[in-house]
Each structure stands twice: as C-alpha cells, then as structure tokens.
Amino acid sequence: MPEATEKKMGPWGRFLAMPADNPVKTVIVAVVLCLFCSMIVSAAAVALRPVQAENKVLDKRRNILEVAGLYKPGIDVTETFNEKVEPRLVDVEAGTFSDAADPATYDQRAASKDPARSIGLDDDPASIGRMAKLASVYIIRDDQGGIEKIILPVHGYGLWSTMYGFVALKADGNEVAGFQFYEQGETPGLGAEVDNPRWKAQWPGKKIYGDDGKVKIAVSKQVPNADTASYHIDSLAGASLTSRGVDNLIHFWMGEKGFKRFLDNLKAGTV
Ligand SMILES: Cc1cc2nc3c(=O)[nH]c(=O)nc-3n(C[C@H](O)[C@H](O)[C@H](O)COP(=O)(O)O)c2cc1C
C-alpha cells in the first residue's frame, strides 16, 4: 500500500487493511471476541440469578408436596404449598417450635454455616460438621386442624456429595409417610438411584423407632426377618457407600441430637 494512502487511513482502517493471517490482527480479534463473549455470559448470569433462585424455591416446595403425597402433575405448586403446608421452625436442641425467625425467609443451610446460629458436631455420623440450631419443618393439617403429617429436613454425606432431603412422618411421629432427596450429587446409575421411585417406594409405612424408643429403621443389605421387616430399607445395589450415608443421616436426624426430642414432645402434646 502506498505510504500516502496508509497515512490517510485511521487506526481502524489500518487494522482492517491488515492481511487476515497477520498474527497481530489474529490476537486482537481473539481478545475482542473473548471480552465480548464473557460480557454476554456475565450479563446472562446476573440477569438469570433471580429466576434461578425462584426455581430453586419452587423445586423445594414441589419436593415437600411430593414427600407429603400432595403433588399431582399440573398443579400450581405455590398455590397448593401455601394452602396445604404450614412452615414452622424447630429449636432442635430444645425440641420445641421456635418463633426466633420468620419460617418463610429462614435459610437453614446458611444458618448451618454460621457459627452464631449453629452447633459444631463432634459425634457426626452424617458428616455435616455443623447443625443449624433452628430447622425448617413443614406441617400438614387434617380438616379438624390436627397434625396429619410432619415433614422434617435431613441431610448428610453419601459418597461424593451432601444429600439434602425430607422425611415425612405420620402424626404418631414414627410411621414414615415419604422420604426423598431434593439435591444430591451421587453417581447416576449407582448412588443417584436414591432418586429411583422404586427405591423410594420402600419407605412409606416403615417405622423409625423400635419399642425401646431407639432408631431402628435401617438401610441395609441384610435380608429382613419378622422382627426387622417393618424397619428395613434395602441398600442400593452397587452403591453401598451412598446407602450407608443414607442410613447414617437418618439415624442422626431421627436420633437424640436430631429431631427425637421434638417428636417426643409432639407426641406428648408439650409443643
Ligand atoms: C466411577 C465410580 C462411581 C461410583 N459411584 C458410587 C456412588 O455414587 N455411590 C456408591 O455407593 N458407590 C459408588 N461407586 C462404587 C463404590 O466404589 C463401591 O464399589 C460400592 O459402593 C460398593 O457397593 P456394593 O458393596 O453394593 O457392591 C462408584 C464406583 C466408581 C468406579
């Protein structure tokens, strides 16, 4: 290109006039493209954050309705949840209901990471490290206003992930009405079979506590006998470690450090 013409062109013109295989041009195009794309991805992530949060709440509510046996495809989850489910907070150590926070906005997971609002666990079979002092529970009432079912949050470590779920109990605080996880990161086809409807179908009707008041339900490989049949959940085939995690977490949350005191108080009518 003649020098006079090149001088007349601005920087943009000179850039465009560079041959396509010029290394400087290649690097500039790549950098500009990366910046542009990262701006689009960041803007999308920020714009979609409220939608993601809303979907998470909706999914948790759908799981609560499912474990309570109130979910049917096509229902309005928010409307049914607001109509049928009474969110409450429980002081786990005291075993009583608590009004110390608003159940609608309380975030148990955030509280369990906050030393001021949680308890460090030495004996920690569920491998959760800390437990929030207040737990979000959900009550389903019958037509007379009595408690029909109570849904308790449970979580614990499987093989790869902390699994978060719910156990629904009948009014006696002992018979299981439903059990399911709403978040887990176990291997599909192995540990993630905890989400398989056939495995979950074993839980309703099983009992948590034996006649001595101790947690007797067990996720195990052993063949049940007449004494253990009402307390037995089959381990997942090829996923003993996840199954042990489920066994550990159910023992912890239903035990003395978990919801046992609250359930005893509920049965005694002292909460
Ligand atoms: C890639 C890979 C992923 C696995 N994921 C799981 C899992 O999610 N949960 C689990 O319990 N075992 C998992 N296992 C298998 C465990 O290592 C172990 O073999 C199994 O829990 C033993 O179960 P079993 O006694 O019923 O055979 C995985 C193994 C491999 C190789």
Give an overview of the whole structure.
37% of the residues lie in helices and 21% in strands. It is α+β, with helices and mostly antiparallel strands and 271 residues long. It has a domain at 86-268. The protein has a 6-stranded antiparallel beta sheet with strand order 2-1-5-6-7-8. The chain has a two-stranded antiparallel ribbon with strand order 3-4. Strands 9-10 form a two-stranded parallel ribbon. Helix 3 packs parallel to helix 4 (77-84). It is elongated. The relative contact order is 0.11. It binds flavin mononucleotide.
**Backbone shape:** elongated
Q: SSE order, as H and E?
A: HHHHEEHEEEEEEHEEHH
The share of residues in helices is 25-40%
| Count of DSSP strands | 10
Bound ligands, named by name, code or SMILES = flavin mononucleotide
Q: Brief description of this entry?
A:
This protein has 271 residues and is of the alpha+beta class. The protein has helices at residues 3-8, 11-17, 23-67, 77-84, 108-112, 197-200, 240-254, 260-268; strands at 85-91, 96-98, 118-120, 130-132, 134-141, 147-157, 162-170, 176-183, 218-220, 232-234.
Write the layout of secondary structure elements.
Layout lengths: L2 H6 L2 H7 L5 H45 L9 H8 E7 L4 E3 L9 H5 L5 E3 L9 E3 L1 E8 L5 E11 L4 E9 L5 E8 L13 H4 L17 E3 L11 E3 L5 H15 L5 H9 L3
Flavin mononucleotide binds next to helix 7.
